[in-house]
Every structure is written in structure tokens, then in C-alpha cells.
Structure to design on (161 residues):
């Protein structure tokens, strides 16, 4: 049985998804740092620590995604000026309430989860099970983050105004 070698076009498509997700991870991380620094209120300590923890997990994926691009003979996003134009995640802007920070983080995770499902399909169709597996694992990280954040808003007790 011979292994299938993906065409250059398919491989390029996979690298494009990796670059977008690498940029998304960095923008999401920077958003998390904003939330970490600017959170306030009765849940300050818990949210301050949660934003730091989740941000660190997202930041760790930046290197994994970049190195996966290199493994495929691609080029990761390396120039800082290229991160924002490559990312589909938007940088957080302006002064936000704690509720708005949490809602923005949830929306970011939902976007990334949706894209990674599609990106895993692109990788699988290219015969790249390694990248598909990476996306499958990272989707689980983002789903867990989203779950934790959604639980904070679930009770509706106005602790996160």
C-alpha cells in the first residue's frame, strides 16, 4: 500500500488554514491579555486567573500551528504586520464590561471552532491526517474554554455586569 502525497495545491490550502489559525491564536491571546488586565468586579480574582489560564493555552497553539506549517514545507506567519490581515478573529477594541469581555471571548471560540471543523476537512481531503488531528485536538481546547465562559453567564445573577 502506498501513501498518497497531497498535491501542492492541496498542501498549500492546508498551510493557508494553518496560517489563519496561527494568526487567530495570537489575536485571541492578545484579547485574553486585555481581559486579564482589565477585568473587575466581584469575580475579579476568578476571571483574572481564568483569562490568564485560557490565554496561555491559546498562546501555546501559536507555535504548534507555525511548526505544522513548516513540517508541510510551508511558511508560517512570521512578520508581526501580517498577523491582523491573516486572522479572521478581530482584535478586541474599546472599554468593555466584564459581560462583554466574556461574550466576546465566547464568540471568538465559536468562530475558531467552526473554522477548525472546516480546516480539519481541508486537511483530511488533502490526505494530511496530522493537521486534521491537530485541529481535532485544538477544537477540544476551544470547546472547553467556551464551556467555562458560558457557565459564568448561565446563572444570570448579574455578577458580570
Amino acid at each position: 500500500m502506498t501513501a498518497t502525497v497531497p498535491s501542492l495545491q492541496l498542501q498549500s490550502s492546508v498551510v493557508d488554514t494553518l496560517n489563519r489559525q496561527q494568526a487567530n491564536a495570537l489575536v485571541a491571546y492578545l484579547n485574553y491579555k486585555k481581559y486579564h488586565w482589565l477585568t473587575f468586579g466581584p469575580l475579579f480574582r476568578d476571571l483574572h486567573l481564568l483569562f490568564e489560564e485560557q490565554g496561555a493555552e491559546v498562546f501555546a497553539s501559536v507555535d504548534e500551528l507555525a511548526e505544522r506549517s513548516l513540517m508541510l514545507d510551508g511558511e508560517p506567519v512570521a512578520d508581526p504586520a501580517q498577523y491582523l490581515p491573516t486572522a479572521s478573529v478581530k482584535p478586541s477594541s474599546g472599554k468593555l464590561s466584564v459581560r462583554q469581555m466574556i461574550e466576546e471571548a465566547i464568540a471568538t471560540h465559536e468562530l475558531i471552532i467552526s473554522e477548525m471543523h472546516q480546516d480539519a476537512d481541508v486537511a483530511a481531503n488533502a490526505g494530511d491526517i496530522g493537521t486534521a488531528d491537530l485541529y481535532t485536538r485544538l477544537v477540544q481546547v476551544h470547546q472547553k474554554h467556551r464551556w467555562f465562559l458560558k457557565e459564568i453567564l448561565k446563572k444570570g445573577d448579574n455578577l458580570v455586569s
Observations:
- The chain has a mean pLDDT of 94.
